[in-house]
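Form P-L/3: holo structure prediction, ligand FE2/S2 (inorganic) cluster.
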Amino acid sequence: MQANLGKILEIQQNQDGSHQGIIAWPENAGHVPAAGQYIQAHNPKEASAPAAVSLFAGGLHPFESEGRHFQTAPGMPESWLPGDTLLLRGPLGNGFYFSPGVRRVTLAALGPFGAHLLPLAGAVLAAGGEVSLLMDGDFPILPASIEVSPLADLSEALHWADYAACAVSLEDLPIAREQLSGAGGHANMQVLVHAPMPCGALAACGVCAFTSSQGISLLACEDGPVFDWSQIR
Ligand code: FES
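OUTPUT (holo model):
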């Protein structure tokens, strides 16, 4: 896949110091990354940077915008500035998928990944559905139509939902498996495994590898980063 040029239009600094931005998406790069998908971005002004940066879709904006703008989740380096031109590879990976009949959706951020799940909320609300977001700690300003609860309510929220989407770091995956199983799991649930992805499926470096519940080795960058719960539990 060839790299395309995109320009950073805006950058937002969050309360926790993380940065997320809006990138003018190149005309010739296909569709804008969907919820759960990522891009590999390289800033040519940092020629000595060893690897591209993985940036995920984030926020409600992508489903509200008619323009070819890609809003990223937190993860943009502090040194990147509005106006910088980036080399972009993507969209990459399997994003979240839910069937059109789904009406009640629980989003559970098992770590600082609330923004990674919000593009789904935009899609569900636009289709007339209901969204419950579970996360601990600070959360972004959200429309009143999104109910926000602590992760302590996970069991109840999974029971309520037609579909559930979760996000967790690769490091915390063993804990998340216990947490989600302990809350009863869900037959219609997907999990975004957020891993370091230095090669982004180009060189089979194995940094993002983990073992599925069936004992199969999986790569977050290539087989995911969104997995069905049946692969994770
Ligand atoms: S990032 Fe190298 S194999 Fe996944």
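COMMENT: Residues 197-201, 203-208, 219, 221 surround FE2/S2 (inorganic) cluster (CB under 6 Å).
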